[in-house]
Amino acid sequence: MNLEDRVAVVTGGASGLGFAVAQRLAAQGATVIITDIDQAAGSQASKQLDATFVAHDVADETSWQNLCQVVRQKFGPLNVLVNNAGVVAKAEAADPEHQSLAEWHRLFAVNSDGVFLGCKTAIGAMREAGGGAIINVSSVAALLATPFGTAYGATKAVVAHLTRTVAQYCAREKLDVRCNSIHPGDIRTPLWDQWATGLATERGVTFEAIVAEFEGMIPTGRMTTPEDIAASVAFLASDEARQINGAQIVVDGGFVSCNTYALTTSGGPLDPHRSFPASDGVSLVHPPSGDTSGKEPAR
Ligand SMILES: NC(=O)c1ccc[n+]([C@@H]2O[C@H](COP(=O)([O-])OP(=O)(O)OC[C@H]3O[C@@H](n4cnc5c(N)ncnc54)[C@H](O)[C@@H]3O)[C@@H](O)[C@H]2O)c1
């Protein structure tokens, strides 16, 4: 997959998944610009990758206009945009009865407004470039509702729907711009590890037990890695994916397609409080009913 002569922007590229995506695109020849709200981490990451860093808040339209100008002036028209930056809700009170409006708005500002503004900016820039590829990072949480990911799941469902709208609009405008969403399962990133550490403390089990629990729910028996996602993003950015448009690409080891929740709960309704069958010697017991903290994976 040759990405030479492509100018690619990866938002939230300072850490985790965005960093791995930037690394992969650069390895395949693209000129990569990483952006992030965390300037210190962004500068550090850009040195490691030999990429350019631009400080950027995806939730701010002016920030997108500035970014676009810098990219245009320094590198030329934009060919690839990966809308990756995202945040998760605090584990406490993430159910629909207790989710705070402030937290709901915070997540929507970054996860949904940020992707909307990215698509809006990129369509204009890619019109000038004569085509391009937009890859929006959604989540399996957009496809599987749970009672404890109220705001996060909703923001990611917006991304999936917006992706199809953008794909349709670009087709109607006869722009050679493809737009796809990618739906990762649980990935070991600093974000996920931090969340899992909190969950382990809450349950009084080890971090490794939490990892084993999640691995036990994934049909391939292993968690998704940032590199798994990076490989799919690179493919979607390349001409080899030229017929893939408006699609939802799920990269989760079969968690969604094999309906793991249904399997692990003997086909019963999804109930976060019920006991899961033990796997690898780990007792997969969720906190008792009424405890609303820390049940939602950071995906
Ligand atoms: N880790 C998982 O299990 C998982 C699963 C599914 C989807 N995702 C999604 O993947 C994406 C990356 O997640 P990650 O796990 O690598 O998280 P991460 O926290 O490691 O990286 C996210 C990056 O986004 C940046 N960011 C946050 N707000 C920003 C803003 N307003 N403007 C610009 N940058 C901002 C952060 O500084 C950080 O560097 C997110 O959209 C997340 O929802 C993650």
Automatic annotation (TrEMBL):
EC number: 1.1.1.-
One term of GO molecular function: oxidoreductase activity
Region (Disordered), start-end ranges: 272-299
InterPro entries in UniProt: NAD(P)-bd_dom_sf, SDR_fam
UniProt keyword annotations, A-Z: Oxidoreductase
Pfam family, one: adh_short_C2
Keyword Oxidoreductase: yes
EC class (word): oxidoreductase
Protein family membership: Belongs to the short-chain dehydrogenases/reductases (SDR) family.
NCBIfam families to which the protein is assigned, alphabetical: PRK07231.1
The name this protein goes by in its record: SDR family NAD(P)-dependent oxidoreductase
High-level lineage: Bacteria, Bacillati, Actinomycetota, Actinomycetes, Micromonosporales
